[in-house]
Specification:
Helices cover about 45% and strands about 10% of the residues. A hairpin with a 2-residue loop joins β4 and β5. The radius of gyration is 27 Å and the shape is flat. The strands form three sheets. The chain has a six-stranded mixed β-sheet with strand order 2-5-4-3-6-7, sandwiched between helices. Strands 1-8 form a two-stranded parallel sheet. α6 packs across α8. It is built from 20 helices and ten strands. The N terminus and C terminus are likely disordered. The chain is α/β, with parallel strands linked by helices.
């Protein structure tokens, strides 16, 4: 790195409140592109190097989303003061637990940590402390929190982002891709330091520390229930037997994708699954008329897809999937007005209050408190909704201390003023008239019998 660029970085890092200075392109890692570590001896040398380094370690991982099955890492990048940067091929070195061990007590700096931590854990690397620069940017109120915009707005540097969606399973990796990967961790620790100062200046640093600790402490995500219901466009499918066709096609596609190690969307797009389920073709020629199953699809594949549809067609009624996904929370908010008008009023008031508070604090509403927690506490609030009882309920649901301290009072106040909208009541021979609503505060019992938190 030239002296001029070092001076530009130093001056940019002193910029406060996210005010960008004239952007300087960051074109080359300061020590050049490091060689890719792809054998045990090279990895052992890297472990020693990073153990001898000091300060936080910047970490990133590149996956092959859209190309390969699953979310495994195909390149891992690290940088630490005193150790420099390294690029590791996790295909050739699938066990990085030795590196994880020497970095166990070191603070990890990642951008959008929840995206990379699962694939790093598969390699044997788990942090005990971290700083998430994307989440810090959200809490600080930056409107754009991608790594490129954050580096530009905070440090006054521009990163080339043209290789973010390439197939990182490619071997050998082209030099421009490696340069891009190394630059992703080049100034990540510096970005962390500037964001820490920014959060401190806004009295939000403790919020960030609580959020980072929650990420570290979170258990691994369990398997999704009915993952096939996430098929894009499945909302168009209403009938249960057609939903069964979506499920069977999705399962057949998933098996093929896993066997071939390719992205499921490359085996069969979601749009084709939904289109076939709506039509329920009974023959291969009929299936070929469905968009996504044209003449380019091999005969053997067509036979597999038609067999999946036939399974759905012949299933007994009791084995068909329910029309809606099973869930353990409250019903969809659109149904609240009919099921529990007072709960609907509570939710509307709480949403408005939380949105106003988030705007006042200059951070996204979902980072102040997740919409799911607002729904759950609004559907089954404490018997007497006070700031203290709402705080207890939010703690029980998993909200962080800083969130509870800010949100519980405004939600309790919102509930106190919530009133159910009168619903039309049928009067024999006289049409409808507004029904009398006697419950007007948060202490009313739910009409569906769901027990309230704190009772």
């Amino acid at each position: 790195m030239t002296d001029a660029r070092e001076d530009a970085i130093d001056s940019a890092s002193e910029t406060a409140h996210g005010q960008a200075v004239q952007a300087v392109p960051l074109l080359e890692p300061r020590e050049g592109i490091p060689p890719v570590v792809a054998d045990a001896d090279s990895l052992a040398a890297i472990v020693q190097r990073f153990a001898a380094g000091h300060g936080p370690v910047a970490i990133d991982a590149e996956r092959a989303s859209g190309y390969r099955y699953g979310q495994r890492a195909y390149l891992v990048q690290l940088r630490r003061e005193g150790a420099g940067s390294t690029l590791i091929d996790p295909v050739a070195c699938p066990d990085l637990s030795s590196l994880g061990a020497v970095l166990a007590e070191t603070e990890w700096v990642l951008h959008a940590a929840t995206q990379d931590l699962p694939c790093l854990a598969e390699l044997g690397m788990k942090p005990t402390r971290l700083f998430d620069t994307e989440l810090a940017g959200r809490l600080a109120g930056f409107p754009r929190v991608g790594l490129g915009p954050m580096v530009e707005n905070v440090l006054g540097l521009t990163l080339e982002k043209g290789h973010s969606a390439v197939d990182w399973s490619t071997r050998p990796l082209p030099e421009p891709w490696l340069r891009y990967a190394a630059l992703d961790v080049e100034v990540l620790v510096q970005l962390r330091d500037s964001l820490e100062q920014e959060l401190a200046s806004q009295n939000k640093l403790d919020w960030g520390l609580q959020e980072f600790a929650a990420i570290v402490a979170a258990p691994p995500a369990g398997p999704r229930t009915d993952p096939w219901r996430r098929t894009s466009g499945v909302h168009k499918v209403r009938r249960r037997r057609q939903l069964a066709a979506v499920r069977e096609l999705w399962l057949a596609r998933d098996q093929l994708a896993r066997e071939r190690d390719v992205s499921p969307g490359r085996v069969l797009p979601d749009s084709a699954i939904v289109a076939a389920a709506l039509v329920m073709p009974t023959s291969i020629p009929a299936l070929q008329a469905v968009p996504g199953f044209g003449p380019r699809v091999h005969r053997r594949a067509l036979e597999q897809w038609i067999a999946a549809i036939e399974i759905a067609r012949t299933l007994p009624e009791h084995q068909l999937p329910p029309a809606t996904a099973p869930h353990d929370g409250p019903p969809p908010p659109r149904a609240w007005a009919d099921k529990d008008p007072l709960a609907a009023a509570r939710l509307s008031a709480a949403r408005a209050a939380v949105t106003a508070l988030a705007e006042q604090l200059h951070l996204p509403q979902e980072n102040l408190i997740t919409p799911e927690l607002v729904r759950r506490v609004s559907w089954a609030p404490p018997k007497y909704a006070t700031p203290l009882t709402v705080a207890d309920a939010l703690h029980t649901l998993g909200a962080r201390d800083w969130q509870v301290e800010l949100v519980a009072p405004v939600i309790a106040q919102a509930y106190a003023g919530a009133k159910a909208e009168p619903r039309p009541a049928v009067v024999p021979g006289k049409g409808t008239k507004p029904a009398q609503e006697t419950a007007t505060d948060g202490a009313a019992a739910p009409k569906n019998g769901v027990p309230r938190l704190g009772e």
